[in-house]
Design brief:
mainly alpha, about 325 residues, transport, Peptide ABC transporter permease, cell membrane, MetI-like fold, membrane, 12 helices
């Protein structure tokens, strides 16, 4: 059959053309002129960092978190005014050039108290996160790795603690310390003991998933002990989601501490706390709203900053959201 007859019966199929958009990153092939060099293949952390550094919301959250951390550790960078030096003659003065956030009922500088209030609130959040993180890591690793009756027992304990309202239990436990001035440690212990369940469940699920992988089975066949397998092979796979949970929990603990102080069962004077300042200022909100608005605004901004940071990290480490 001739080519003409083939054309009359429908024509020849169009030629298939394959176009390579880029040669960057292909093994053994150098990138063409003008193409970026992809570099070596990235791991999970490398992919997460690659995504994070291109998100403006991540850098906004990091900037805010750093500002608040410096505020909590070195408050004199932001103000040289003492938060405990008060003058009744300037009681409830509005914001001015001398007192940027005004003064409260006792004549104390609201700006200085707001800056120094970050220390107690953020310190309680960080320490509570560390306490709950250690408990969650230990319980989640043991339950997920050993399984059986150990897993069943620890899982029931997690469910029981998870069913207890955090704020209600924190109020009850905080009142058990009485009126003794124990500083921030009662609040830290209460929040840490009650806030570890979510992290434990995340670690447990990650351990159960990781221990079935081939590299774990190979390490066990080569004679690796349980401790080496747990800390060298399984734990690195559970760290990323665990850190995300802790970052989000940090903001929750800061908000809970402020709520406890607001209700009078958290931090007590002379410790300066945002929640305590908000509680004192609420009775005269209509006469002088600034002693309440500024600490409340800083508290809300701190919680939002840590929440945004946690959400950004979670999205970066979750392959389903890429």
């Amino acid at each position: 059959m001739s080519e003409r007859q083939l054309g009359e019966r429908g024509g020849a199929a169009p030629p298939v053309r394959i176009r390579i958009a880029s040669s960057a990153g292909l093994p053994g092939i150098a990138p063409r002129d003008g193409e970026p060099d992809a570099g070596p293949p990235r791991g999970l952390a490398g992919d997460a960092w690659y995504d994070l550094r291109r998100k403006p919301i991540f850098w906004v959250a990091v900037t805010l978190v750093l500002l608040f951390l410096v505020m909590a550790t070195v408050p004199r960078v932001y103000t040289s005014i003492s938060p405990t030096v008060c003058d009744l003659s300037r009681s409830q003065n509005p914001p001015s050039g001398q007192h940027w956030f005004g003064t409260d009922l006792q004549g104390c500088d609201v700006y200085a108290r707001t800056i120094y209030g970050a220390r107690a609130s953020i310190l309680v959040g960080v320490l509570s996160t560390l306490v709950s993180g250690v408990l969650a890591l230990v319980v989640g690793m043991v339950a997920g790795y050993y399984g059986g009756w150990i897993d069943a027992l620890l899982t029931r304990i997690i469910d029981i603690v998870l069913g207890i309202p955090l704020l209600l239990a924190a109020i009850v436990l905080s009142r058990s310390f009485g009126t003794r001035d124990l500083g921030i440690w009662p609040v830290v212990l209460v929040l840490g003991v009650l806030g570890w369940t979510t992290g434990a469940r995340v670690v447990r699920s990650c351990v159960i998933s990781a221990k079935q992988q081939d590299y774990v089975q190979a390490a066990r066949m080569l004679g690796a002990g349980n401790r080496r397998i747990m800390f060298r092979h399984i734990l690195p796979n559970a760290v990323a989601p665990f850190i995300v949970v802790l970052t989000i929990a940090l903001g929750v603990f800061i908000a809970t501490e402020a709520t406890l102080s607001f209700l009078g069962v958290g931090l007590r004077p002379p410790t300066i706390s945002w929640g305590d300042d908000i509680s004192v200022a609420q009775g005269r909100f209509y006469q002088a709203p600034w002693p309440l608005l500024f600490p409340a605004g800083f508290l809300a901004l701190t919680v939002v900053a840590f929440s945004m940071l946690g959400e950004s990290v979670r999205e970066a480490f979750d392959p389903r959201l890429r």
